[in-house]
Amino acid sequence: MAPQAALEPASAKATARQASNPPVHPELRRVTIEGLRMQLKTLNDELAQYDAIKAGTTKLRGTLDDLGELLVQARIARSWTQAQLAEWLELYVQQIQVYESTNYEGASLTRLVDVARALGLDLEIRVELLAIPDLRRATLASTSSAAGQSKTDKQRERRR
Fold first, then answer.
1. Does 138 score more than 70 pLDDT?
2. What CATH number is associated with residue 103?
């Protein structure tokens, strides 16, 4: 077989490969690489946070909105597995997995307190009555007056 004839199948394969994998636009390549770098930085930051929690070098503090995440962090800081927490609470491990995957979003307040106590957390809850913003007050007033007005109109119509 002539050398040129031997190269033809390889050349055809290379052409077919290029057709199925067209060249990537430089801007798309740049954006893709930048996105991957950002993901890598996020993962590295999360690993550093995990290591700090595991080593006990970070203080767990937050608000009620952070409670689910804090419970997960406390379990990690205690070096407990999900199975150990589940056993302590007499739950199935799958329930702990669901709670943690949603940051305890669907858990009752009683359950949240039970988990916190099991992990040895000291919870402090502060309650303060805040003023209703003027915008909210105005919305409530207009809603109630509109509702009252339409009731009055309906009552007048019924009398006629």
1. no
2. 1.10.260.40
